[in-house]
Amino acid sequence: MSQIARIVIPASGRLVEVPRGLFIHNEFVPSVDSKELIDVINPATEEIICSVFAGSQKDIDVAVAAARKAFNTTWGKNVTGFERSRLLNKLADLMERDQQVLAEVESLNNGKPVTIARDSDIGDSIQCLRYYAGWADKIVGQTIEVDNKTKMAFTKHEPVGVCGQIIPWNYPINMWAWKVAPALACGCTIVMKPSEITPLTALMLSQLVVEAGFPPGVVNTVPSFGAVGGAALASHMGVDKVAFTGSTLTGRKIMEAAARSNLKKVSLELGGKSPHLIFESANLDQAANWACLGILYNTGQDCTAGSRLYVQDTIYDKFVALLVEKAAQLVIGDGFDEKSGGGPVVSKAQYDKIWSYIESGKVQGAKLVLGGQKRPGKGYFVDPTIFTEITHDMKIVQDEIFGPVLSVGRFKTEEEAITLANDTSYGLGAGLHSNDANQCMRVSSALEAGTVWVNQYNMLSNNVPFGGKKQSGIGRELGSYALNEYTDVKAVHWNFGEQSEWPL
User: Fold this and answer.
1) d(CA 428, CA 248)
2) Domain with residues 4-270+472-490, CATH architecture
3) Beta strands 27-29 and 22-24: pairing type?
4) Which long-range contacts (CB under 8 A, 24 or more apart) does 258-265 make?
5) Among candidate residues 442, 422, 334, 325, the one with its CA nearest the CA of residue 108
6) Which parts of the chain span the membrane according to its record (predicted)?
7) How far is 134 from 154, CA to CA, in rounded Å?
């Protein structure tokens, strides 16, 4: 079977050659022991784009061995920060060169609009690589005074080693960059498992890794099913750290497997059911824009989606009317249609899950004020859906839906708003809108979330850390904080004057 899939982009007629094999030691290869394939689906048409090889547990073993060899010989402590920086910048250059074609394949596989994939996801990913390229030669330790006459100590921040990285389907290129860039900047090697739903751009980026000049084995990519490849990485005795973005349920399994194997280092960016508070002093027009962005961006397939919106009772009716009017303006359509601000959800399983929650909202008595009706025809399209008159026990209020479904409640006082916001097992993101500066400081301090947005929502920067509290995970991505996830601190005690006496 050919190692290359030839894909025609319907909107442009562009022919794109995408690798189908496993990327190990800078080569695309078949599985060592499996003939299983992963069918890759276009969510806008429900048609198969192509099939790629599905990695097995033995393939993970081979990839880990390649990563270990590279770490011990051509990467890790064997290459300077200047060289790591040069290669990361070269990779960013190549992504910039191929930005349009990467965006088209991303849209075909994931469903999101080409313009958003190109300008937001890939544009941000290029910046992420350049940001960590800047850090590669600036990873420093401390000199510590112990006794100036006889001894001193210093610390070194050394690369963790071989890193298993498991990324989700909602931002395939963005999550690839978030994981790969800090790991490579620190000198780690990688075995990447992209989502089996969206593996294509990870394989295309692997081609760019070779073109950029990275040594064989530094980055390895093994598309596989989560229960196979992800589980193998989490429990592998040769993996020093695992980084995962995905559901809380899977995060628990990964953490348990890491503990049962070699107690590998773990960072987990998990689910969310993020609160978004609108106070009466807010600019209502802007707050409505941000609230729409918070739940409808990426068709709601966002771990920080502001899916629980609470509005102060004095402005509730006015704000809800404005919100519904604005949300209805979003065009959900084919990602290659320039009018589309959102695409289909990624898969049939996700589509069915979202609709089960919409139906539960209706059954449990929430008031449907927008959407909630299935479209005829092909494609996993879900239009913006808003419920009001919610109660705390409803599934749409409790559970992460991961779709364009918003629950709107009300509050009277600031204290009640904070209580409602924090009444969740999650703690990834939260937002508030107010023109009272003192209130902004009080509430942002009281909200239990790793990221709090004030008078905006869902905006991230590569130099600002991101991660969760409670059941939304552990560890941080982005910013200088992410370097801590890919380094170990070694303390060196140096005696230059103290004499030891023996026996005691």
Assistant:
1) 11
2) 3-Layer(aba) Sandwich (3.40)
3) antiparallel
4) 258/234, 260/235, 261/234, 261/235, 261/236, 261/237, 262/237, 264/239, 264/240, 265/160, 265/240, 265/241, 265/485, 265/488
5) 334
6) none
7) 24
pLDDT digits (tens, 9 = 90+) for 51-65: 999 999 999 999 999
Q: Given CA atoms 86, 104, 164, 250 in this order, what sign does their dihedral have? A: positive
Tokens of 480: 């200088």
CA 132 to chain CA centroid, nearest Å: 17
> What CATH topology corresponds to 275-454?
Aldehyde Dehydrogenase; Chain A, domain 2 (3.40.309)
Q: Which residues have C-beta within 8 Å of that of residue 366, sequence separation ≥ 6?
A: 387, 388, 389, 390, 391, 394, 396, 407
Percent helix, strand and coil across the chain, each rounded to 5?
40, 25, 40
**Can you tell me whether residue 462 is helix, strand or coil?**
coil
- Tens of pLDDT, residue by residue over 233-261, are 999 999 999 999 999 999 999 999 999 99
pLDDT class of 453 with cuts at 50, 70, 90: very high
Mean pLDDT of the residues in the chain? 97
Banded model confidence at residue 2, pLDDT cuts 50, 70, 90? confident
| CB-count exposure of residue 149 (10 Å: 0-12, 13-18, 19+) | exposed
* Span 135-184, pLDDT tens digits: 999 999 999 999 999 999 999 999 999 999 999 999 999 999 999 999 99
pLDDT greater than 90 at residue 12: no
Kindly report the CA angle at 30 between 26 and 31, in degrees rounded to 5? 110
Instruction: Choose among 246, 225, 228, 248: nearest CA to 236.
Output: 228
For residues 482, 488, 492, 493, the Cα torsion angle rounded to the nearest 10 degrees is 90
Question: Minimal CA–CA distance to 101: which of 88, 90, 116, 114?
Answer: 114
Scanning 200-278, the segments in alpha helix (DSSP H) are: 200-212, 231-235, 248-260
Q: Where are the domains of the chain?
A: 4-270+472-490, 275-454
Candidates 269, 400, 477, 485; catalytic one: 269
Share of the chain above pLDDT 70, in %: 100
How confident is the model at residue 1, as a pLDDT?
Answer: 58
Asked about 338 being catalytic, the answer comes back as no
